[in-house]
Design goal:
Blueprint lengths: L8 E2 L9 E3 L23 H4 L5 H8 L5 E3 L2 H10 L4 E3 L1 H7 L4 E6 L10 H13 L4 E6 L3 H13 L2 E7 H6 L1 H9 L3 E5 L5 H9 L7 H13 L4 E3 L6 H20 L6 E5 L4 H15 L6 E7 L4 H4 L1 E6 L8 E6 L21 H8 L4 E5 L1 H15 L5 H20 L4 E6 L7 H8 L10 H9 L6
Parallel strand pairs: 5-15, 6-7, 6-9, 7-8, 10-11, 10-15, 11-14
Antiparallel strand pairs: 1-4, 2-3, 4-5, 12-13
Bound molecules: pyridoxal-5'-phosphate.
Length: 457
Amino acid sequence: MWQKEIPYKIYLEESEMPKAWYNVRADMKRKPAPLLNPQTHVPMTFEELRTVFCDELVRQELDDSTPWIPIPEEISSFYKMYRPSPLVRAYCLEEKLQTPAKIYYKFEGNNTSGSHKLNSAIAQAYYAKKQGLKGVTTETGAGQWGTALSMACAYLGLDCRVYMVKVSYEQKPFRREVMRTYGAFVTPSPSDTTQVGRKILERHPGTSGSLGCAISEAVEAAGSREGYRYVLGSVLNQVMLHQSVIGLESKAAMDKYGIKPDIIIGCAGGGSNLGGLIGPFMGEKLRGEQDYQIIAVEPASCPSLTRGKFAYDYCDTGMVCPLAKMYTLGSGFIPSASHSGGLRYHGMSPILSQLYDDGLMEARTVEQTAVFEAAQQFARVEGTLPAPESSHAIRVAIDEALKCKETGEEKTIFFGLTGTGYFDMMAYGKYNDGKMEDYIPTDAELQAGFDGLPHIE
Ligand SMILES: *Cc1c(COP(=O)(O)O)cnc(C)c1O
């Protein structure tokens, strides 16, 4: 294979940017299972889903067969404000590790929201606006999704209502203020503004909230307001579709220089960045054109792929959302208070769950002290201060590069660097003070989550 001198950063020209999203479901022999109505357990129809989500997004959600979906002009223009994101050759990290491996990463933190979430936020806000809606509601955990959606809504002149997990609302006041600066209404969840919130508060007074709980509130808030719909930042098929822009840009940049990754690594919370990153590579694998080793990395404290069950489950605590078939720890599972808020979801994208079940990708868990060790090492040599979530991928990329050092293999390792960690300095502080702890749930704790799974014939 020919290789030009490879620059530190590979950018695409505007004319080389993707013009359509890639829908990996079109190439999957076994499709992800359909969403089910939580009461009747029958697959959700377009008509049912459109009461919750925007029409065009429902079409995308249900479309298992169209491989390419054109990116509307308005979304392309918005993408051009902060994309293409750079594909970086980690020469400095390679040097530091003294590894023969070649390491690349795609950096998605180059926008104010600080993560890849803006790629789907602008798409979802655009379709809501186009449908003539007044606004959207959503939940946010660590705050990245809420921030991204606030930015997209401000740009399009849409009302944005964010239910923010109470513990984050209190611990991350700066995130909250960024959202408010972009015009969003931010409510700590659980709140007394919804029925489901009041019910949860009654049952668990003083609770610091959870993502599953905030989702239930946001869905109820959308349903009870004329001209509003609910939007979600991960897990759903439509989100994987929008995020394919990450993988498509990476693939185009790599093809320009004749680079072929042997190993592709991404952190996995609900699965959106990983699904997007691997999309076009997985497509080649599914069509039998190429092979890649693909690794999902999850926290040991919230191990949905590695220790979860592949089953239909609720997406939220209040059980108002459709049921999804996914690797799950059970909607009642409350992960320990890890510092990677974006990876604390109990379930995993149905697309990735199916691909994993079919043996097309692997999964690994890492503990948070090892993650922060990798984050610190990366920051010191590559400059960028990574998000704790992203650092899960860094950990495994470094581990794989060190393996190459032992064996002398010159593998090409590629990982997704999903965002920056500027709002996570409390967590970095804990690590720097030597006070960070690891937590691995016991089998008995996981069983309690599995006991709450719905019984679907
Ligand atoms: C939300 C988030 C994640 C995890 O979400 P996925 O849907 O699994 O991608 C990872 N990294 C960052 C920086 C995030 O904001």
